[in-house]
## 1
Amino acid sequence: MSSASERPTRKFEQNYPQPTPQDGDILVKLACSPIQPSDFLNTRGGFPSTTFPRISGRDFAGTVVSESPLQGKRVHGTSGRSLSFTVDGAHAEYVVVLADAVVEIPSALTMKQASVLGTPWSTAWLALTSARAKKGRDVVQLAMSGLIAVKVITTGRGGKYDVDATVHPNFEPLKDLNGGNGVDVAIDTTGDPGPIKVMIKQLAVGGRVVVITTGSASGSTETAIEADFEILYRKQQSIIGCNSVDMNRA
């Protein structure tokens, strides 16, 4: 079996024996396994729990080829704290996973489409759940696409509008959200302490900032966030860390 193995400082292709499923496992012949930002970070030794050498690949889609009720079915899945960290992941031809850690792919989705859902969608769900986001309320997303992009979405209704951070570096339009009360929930996907610091100032009473990554994912070494404790406690605000790597399957 061909695979992309990794150590913290180098990558190489290598042939490995085809893995053998144990009791409770299934063997999946892989069709797709995307490279997520956390995969890239993992190859650089960014997760203390990872043992090397290790085949990376958290998310996957493929066909079950071992004997089981799912044999011949198209399935997809994602990692918790083990796959690609302490056991070999899906950047290979085959992967062994727990039988109850996959779901069948709906007929409307291709293998490629299903393969990319795991980490992004589970992280989004965890972030919104951790933030106690309510349907119909405005949620702010800090995103990075060359420049900081400030997006406002309404839970349950999709996109609403964007804030141009180059025109409004302090995100002033956000004060008008939720009936003029400000930001209930902000989800940071940049890991950049600068805009997070600005966003905290726009939080409403009881507002929450959820952080799902650090600057180390993009090569930055800056991880410290400044916050005014007096404002945090007087306005009952929260800064919440959300780590999908530490998620166990349901």
## 2
Amino acid sequence: MAANYWASTQRLHWQFTRTELQEIRQELESDDHTLIQQYPLPDRRLLSIFFNQQLVKLGKRMPVRQQVLATAQVYVRRFYMKVDLRSTNPYIMLATALYLACKMEESPHHISVVVREARNMWPDFIPSDLSKLGECEFYLISEMNSQLIIHHPYRTLQDLQSRLGLGQDDVSLAWSIINDHYLTDLPLLVAPHVVAIAAILLALTLKPAQAGNTGTSLGSTAQIPKDLPKAGANTVNTPQKRVENFVKWLAEGEVDVQAVTDSSQEIISLYDIWEQYSEKTCKEQISRFVKARGLDK
């Protein structure tokens, strides 16, 4: 189990180019055109917003740390890269991903607790039989080839806080943007440190009201740790100087600037499409195929 991202299964087996990811998904969709036409779904990013909100609500009931939620979201994204959503009960998968993430992040909850809280949230979709979640856990682990360790951008953000002279507001907003990146394909496309740097870039250059339509996307906000390191003596006083400091550091470093730029644009595109999000629509379209195909049994 590699503690180093560069030698990890995440980098070696779960990082793709956009073309590779598109080809994988096209192949998955080509397996059953009839099913796809019969049960159309919203944009993948809108579904990701829905899944994120459901996971956050479930996580608050248990409760769990933000990193557990982040790991669960990566598990869900990996799984549905290999398995068509319409062939599963997404609610059981969300509960299973959170249950497994709790164990991997050393914050375990008993399976009975997870099932009870999931049933309280989604009574029409979660069976009382504990073995159903156990079977789903085996399915999830199998599809991920037992490669379960996830490296996150949060540590890089904390490491760069002092080096870049970031203020507390900068770090809090960047943390929220990192939370939001799990709603995109970035966990499958770039290294965690690239996401952290893109989040800092957006935090320094966007007004808080712009980032993530913050009133909505910062389900993130509720998940910002209270024990984030406080701004210290190295904090640069003015926003303009912090931007200049960041640009200078970026120019002198060995970071892939194009990857940072692309990641920033990916996150901004998420915020653009967020205005189209309808929880009611997502619920209805998921319920339609789950009930029609008997996946709630």
